[in-house]
Amino acid sequence: MSEPAHSGTVEPAMRDALLAAVPSLRAFAISLTNNVDRADDLVQDTLLRAIAHIGRFERGTNLNAWLFTILRNLFHSEYRKRRREVEDPEGSYASHLASPPEQGAKLDLADLRVALTKLPPDQREALLLVGAAGLPYEDVAAIMDCAVGTVKSRVNRARLRLAQLLGLDGVEDLGPDRLTRAAIHTSA
User: Fold this and answer.
1) Is 176 a residue whose pLDDT tops 70?
2) What is the reported pLDDT for 170?
3) What are the backbone angles phi and psi of residue 72, rounded to the nearest 5°?
4) pLDDT, tens digit, for every residue of 118-132?
5) What is the pLDDT of residue 95?
6) Is the pTM of this model over 0.70?
7) What is residue 4's predicted lDDT score, i.e. its pLDDT?
8) DSSP H or E stretch at residue 28
9) DSSP letters along 58-125, please?
C-alpha cells in the first residue's frame, strides 16, 4: 500500500541517490527536448515531483527507473501542451491569423454528404476508406476483396465524380476542412 505524499525532508541516503541520478536524467532530458534550458527545467520538475511523492516510491525497487518514468511523463504532458502553442514574440504571426466562418464549412459538408449518396456504392466505399479513413490502398483492397488497381480506379472515378457534382475546378475551390480535401484531392 502506498503512503501519502511526503511533505517533509528527504533522508540523506535518498537525497544522495536522487542527486546521483541527475546527470543521467539531464542527458535523457536533453535528448528529448534538444534544448538545454528546457531539459534543466524538466529535470528540476522531475526532482520536485519525486520529492513531493517520495512516499509512493517502493523501497528496494529501481529508483532510476522511477525517476526516468516521472521525467518521461512530464515531457509528454509538456509536449501535448506546447504542441498547440506558437512562439510569436513580435506578434507577426498572430496579426495574419484569420478564422473562416463556420457556417460555410457546415454547408460544404452537407453538400458533400448529398454528393456522396450519388456515387455508386463501390466507389463511395473505396473513397471513404482511402480519403476519410486514411487507409492504404492495399488494406482497402483486402477489405473490399478486389485488386489494388481496382481500388485506385474506383477512388479516382469517385473523386472526379464528386468534383463534378460539387462544381469544383481545383483544390483551391475546397474549403479549409482537411477531410474534404483528402476525399476530393487526387494525390500524385
Assistant:
1) no
2) 60
3) -60, -45
4) 999 899 888 888 887
5) 67
6) no
7) 46
8) helix 12-33
9) PTTS-HHHHHHHHHHHHHHHHHHHHTT----TTSHHHHT-----HHHHHHHHHHHHHHHHTS-HHHHH
Residues whose CB falls within 8 Å of the CB of residue 139, separated by 6 or more in sequence, listed in order? 129
Domains and CATH numbers, the chain: 12-82 (1.10.1740.10), 103-184 (1.10.10.10)
What is the residue whose three cell numbers read 511526503?
6
Task: Tell me if residue 146 falls in helix, strand or coil.
Answer: coil
- In degrees and rounded to multiples of 5, residue 187 shows phi and psi of -85, 155
The three three-digit cell numbers of residue 88, written as one number: 510569436
- For 155, the grid coordinates are 477512388
pLDDT classification of 52: cutoffs 50, 70, 90? very high
Q: Which three cell numbers stand for residue 131?
A: 480519403
What DSSP state is assigned to residue 135? -
Nearest CA to 50 out of 16, 96, 92, 18 is that of 18
